[in-house]
Specification:
By secondary structure, the protein is an alpha+beta fold. Helix content is 49%, strand content 19%.
Length: 192
């Protein structure tokens, strides 16, 4: 269990994300001091969330969405008009529980595996429904991405601890992942 939790943490703090963010921060410093300051604060918020939630099995949808909004701010600065993210949220399920950084990981996967340009932007749609969260993106696959699918497999394993399934759908136009809400604490499950 400890090894599994370590692997989860290691996957959540992606060194490429930090490297890219620091490069963006460095170039912003020459252009716009106010935007640089805001970017640095959002980056700090993202890493604070990752560090404070790594010991927690679940977070509320409200906590996760707040984190995702900070993460998306950073990615919008980096990708500009090449990334469009829509969040459909009726605010009724903010008390429900999800695995920490699960939505962010799906957005990061979409960015990693797809081409995104101003002419052909990557479009990510996040929908919070009564049964869970659906993250979908248009497919514009890169020719080559070094990947072993570990992120999605890890996410599926985490949700399986709660007896729930992560549904993954793919066709020629779209990639969709459905994350169910979780209703029990993993710590309680391990004592049963």
């Amino acid at each position: 269990k400890a090894l599994y939790q370590f692997e989860v943490l290691k996957n959540q703090i992606n060194p490429h994300f930090l490297f890219n963010s620091l490069n963006v921060l460095a170039s912003l410093a020459y252009q716009d001091t106010e935007k640089t300051n805001r970017f640095a604060k959002k980056l700090s918020t993202v890493y604070r969330y990752l560090l404070t939630t790594h010991g927690r099995a679940t977070v509320t949808v409200q906590e996760e969405l707040s984190f995702v909004e900070s993460y998306l701010y950073l990615e919008h600065i980096r990708f500009g008009d090449a990334l469009h993210v829509e969040i459909e949220d009726d605010l009724r399920n903010h008390h429900c529980l999800v695995i920490p950084a699960s939505i962010q990981m799906l957005v990061e996967n979409a960015l990693k595996h797809n081409i995104s340009t101003k002419k052909s932007p990557l479009i990510v749609h996040i929908s919070i429904g009564n049964e869970g969260i659906t993250v979908r993106n248009n497919l514009q696959l890169r020719n080559y991405v070094a990947s072993n699918g570990a992120g999605l497999k890890n996410l599926q394993r985490q949700y399986a601890l709660y007896g729930t399934l992560v549904e993954i759908l793919k066709d020629e136009k779209e990639f969709v992942v459905k994350l169910p809400f979780v209703y029990e604490d993993v710590n309680r499950l391990s004592t049963i």
